[in-house]
Amino acid sequence: NKERAEFQTMEETIQKAEAEVVRLQGELETPGQDARRLQAAATALGAAQARVEQLYARWADLEARIAAGG
For an engineered disulfide with 45, which of 18, 24, 26, 57 has Cβ 3.0 to 4.6 Å away? Predict the structure, then answer.
């Protein structure tokens, strides 16, 4: 089942997405950044954080479907 396969790899996918959030947070905290680079990092961080939230929601959805016999 495709959803079961996705569920099996979701934890790893979330860990990678969270690592990207941490990387971008570090980039924002690096001293001496120019304004354009900081803006780009802030935008990317917002997108990465939204992605993590989406992945957690998808994981919960998959878990519920599988538990229901899907």
Answer: 24
